[in-house]
Amino acid sequence: MDEAELLELVRGLTERVEGLEAKIKRLEVHADDVPEETLVAIAAAVAAYLGHRARRRQPHFTTGRNWASNTRRSQHTHHPLYTR
Fold first, then answer.
1. Are the CB atoms for 54 and 47 separated by under 8 Å?
2. pTM of this prediction?
3. Tens digits of residue pLDDT in 20-29
4. Rounded CA gap, 28 and 46, in Å?
5. DSSP symbol at 64
6. Tens digit of pLDDT for each residue in 14-61?
7. Whole-angstrom distance, CA of residue 24 vs CA of residue 20
8. 50 burial class (0-12, 13-18, 19+ CB within 10 angstroms)?
9. Residues 6+ apart with CB under 8 A from 1
10. In terms of Cα–Cα distance, which of 81, 62, 57, 82 is closest to 72?
11. Residue 74, pLDDT above cutoff 60
12. Which of 44, 49, 54, 55 has the most crowded CB, counting CB atoms within 10 A?
């Protein structure tokens, strides 16, 4: 390949990238109109299609008289992940 062919290829690729960037900008403008519930439903459908099995998790609340002191104790005994 000579230099003229390479320059022509680079020009062609540059035009394609600029065209794709313009399309992305237009899509970003339209994405603002989509409600969050719809995006979550689409993401869940894609994840299910790809085979991800979601787990529903129920919040667990500690019951008992000493829950505050137990929580403080667990926070004080927390060890940092990275020590030097």
1. yes
2. 0.35
3. 999 888 877 6
4. 20
5. S
6. 999 999 999 888 877 666 677 888 888 988 898 888 888 777 777 666
7. 6
8. exposed
9. none
10. 62
11. yes
12. 44
Instruction: Determine phi and psi for 42, rounding to 5 degrees.
Output: -65, -45
Residues 36 and 21: their CA atoms lie apart, in Å, by 24
CA angle 60, 63, 64 (to 5 degrees): 155
- Alpha-carbon distance of 12 to 10, in angstroms, equals 5
pLDDT of res. 30? 66
Element spanning 69, H or E = helix 67-76
Reading the block at residue 9, the tokens are: 């290829």
* Residue bearing tokens 């899509």: 27
